[in-house]
TrEMBL record:
<feature type="binding site">
    <location>
        <position position="17"/>
    </location>
    <ligand>
        <name>a divalent metal cation</name>
    </ligand>
</feature>
<feature type="binding site">
    <location>
        <position position="16"/>
    </location>
    <ligand>
        <name>a divalent metal cation</name>
    </ligand>
</feature>
<dbReference type="Pfam" id="PF01351">
    <property type="entry name" value="RNase_HII"/>
</dbReference>
<dbReference type="InterPro" id="IPR024567">
    <property type="entry name" value="RNase_HII/HIII_dom"/>
</dbReference>
<dbReference type="InterPro" id="IPR022898">
    <property type="entry name" value="RNase_HII"/>
</dbReference>
<dbReference type="GO" id="GO:0030145">
    <property type="term" value="F:manganese ion binding"/>
</dbReference>
<dbReference type="InterPro" id="IPR012337">
    <property type="entry name" value="RNaseH-like_sf"/>
</dbReference>
<keyword id="KW-0255">Endonuclease</keyword>
<comment type="function">
    <text>Endonuclease that specifically degrades the RNA of RNA-DNA hybrids.</text>
</comment>
<dbReference type="GO" id="GO:0004523">
    <property type="term" value="F:RNA-DNA hybrid ribonuclease activity"/>
</dbReference>
<feature type="domain" description="RNase H type-2">
    <location>
        <begin position="10"/>
        <end position="199"/>
    </location>
</feature>
<keyword id="KW-0963">Cytoplasm</keyword>
<dbReference type="InterPro" id="IPR036397">
    <property type="entry name" value="RNaseH_sf"/>
</dbReference>
<feature type="binding site">
    <location>
        <position position="108"/>
    </location>
    <ligand>
        <name>a divalent metal cation</name>
    </ligand>
</feature>
<dbReference type="GO" id="GO:0003723">
    <property type="term" value="F:RNA binding"/>
</dbReference>
<dbReference type="GO" id="GO:0043137">
    <property type="term" value="P:DNA replication, removal of RNA primer"/>
</dbReference>
<keyword id="KW-0378">Hydrolase</keyword>
Length: 199
């Protein structure tokens, strides 16, 4: 059972990202402020929810949220500033777009770059503890998956429709066979750094 809030006084926004460990594509983040009484039996950490249920939950979250927003940082900026900073920047971009100003940020994970004027709490595995972080994880994941499905139409050889840019064996094999696409992260080790030599 997810907790509806961390404390009872301040307006809380849950924040989470999707795509941090991918070899290709942007990192997405969402920030969500839920009503204190929001509850849905399917809501959980996006990794624990089926794809069908994630897409069932998204419009429910969007309809009932006090405010929600999604931030995106592309692969080129990920290469320029590193994936951790890019993840935090995507969260900041999402927070920037909230129409209701939160007074406390609940961040999934153990680190965060402080957002100006708003205190935060880092919560390890927070997407499995607090409803607002779980809701953010659902939005970040589904919006990113939609984006990767669009890229798949341009680059079907990488199977982004199924792996969404994650480092599956099929994805790595496709990079080895076809080279890197314009959307691959050059700062990531997309191929084994040392090929075996025939001696």
């Amino acid at each position: 059972m997810l907790k509806p809030f961390h404390q009872e006084i301040l307006i809380e926004a849950g924040c989470d990202e999707a795509g941090r460990g991918c070899l290709a594509g942007p990192v997405f983040a969402a920030a969500v402020i839920l009503p204190k009484d929001f509850h849905h039996p399917l809501l959980n950490d996006s990794k624990q929810v089926t794809e069908e249920h994630r897409y069932e939950l998204r419009p429910i979250i969007e309809k009932h949220a006090v405010s929600y927003a999604v931030g995106i940082v592309d692969h080129e900026e990920i290469d320029a500033i590193n994936i951790l900073k890019a993840s935090f920047k995507a969260m900041h971009l999402a927070i920037d777009k909230l129409t209701t100003a939160p007074q406390l940020l609940l961040i999934d994970g153990n680190r965060f770059t402080t957002y100006p004027t708003i205190p935060h709490e880092c919560i390890i595995k927070g997407d499995g503890i607090y409803a607002s972080i779980a809701a953010a994880s659902i939005l970040a994941k589904t919006y990113r998956d939609d984006y990767m499905m669009q890229l798949h139409d341009q680059f079907p050889q990488y199977n982004w429709n199924s792996n969404k840019g994650y480092a599956t064996l099929k994805h790595r094999n496709a990079i080895e066979a076809h080279g890197m696409s314009p959307y691959h992260r050059k700062s990531f080790q997309c191929l084994p750094s040392q090929l075996e030599l025939d001696l």
